[in-house]
Amino acid sequence: MAETAAHLVDSVLPMKPTRQWVLSFPIPIRLCLSARPELMTRLLNITQSTISCYYRAQAKLSKSKAMTGSVTLIQRFGVVSPSTLIFIHFFIDGTYELNDQKEPSDFHSCPTPKVRDLEPVLAKIIKRIIKASPESKDHR
Fold first, then answer.
1. Is 54 exposed, middle or buried (0-12, 13-18, 19+ CB in 10 A)?
2. What's the number of domains the chain is made of?
3. What is the pLDDT along the chain (140 residues), one digit of tens a residue?
4. Torsion of CA 75, 2, 47, 37, to 10 degrees
């Protein structure tokens, strides 16, 4: 873990503020994710894209005019089944504005979020996960 952290700091993450977003899932979802890696990939994409959307909104930039950056670690604990499954997203705490050539130009720092800022992000993640779940498609 120490080598991975050193590599991220030295070679991957830019010299910008970074915020850690940690998401844990209820046990039934953990069990489903352990049996269906394609579903874990879908949930990972949902959480990453929803948090990116939050950063773009904070900078008041559209998706075509902004770029966010993140690295995600997936931690699993448990012998037989994943008693704990956590997504740890390390996001650059802001958004790069893209110039006409779609290259990063200006960086817009994000203010420290308040609970009232995070609640809608979590609600959106939950809504998108429920919509993406196989069971929700079976009941349409």
1. buried
2. 1
3. 678 777 877 777 778 888 999 998 888 888 788 778 888 899 999 999 999 999 999 999 999 999 999 999 888 776 665 567 889 999 999 999 999 999 999 999 999 999 999 999 999 999 998 888 766 555 44
4. -40
Q: Residue 92 belongs to what domain range?
A: 2-120
CB 73: neighbour CB atoms within 10 A? 15
Please give the Cα distance from 49 to 57 (Å, whole number).
12
Q: How far, in Å, CA of 70 to CA of 12, rounded?
A: 10
Distances (CA, A) of 61 to 89, 98, 124: 21, 9, 19
The whole-angstrom separation of Cα 89 and Cα 79 is: 24
Whether 87 maps to a domain, the answer reads: yes
Element (H, E) at 27: helix 27-35
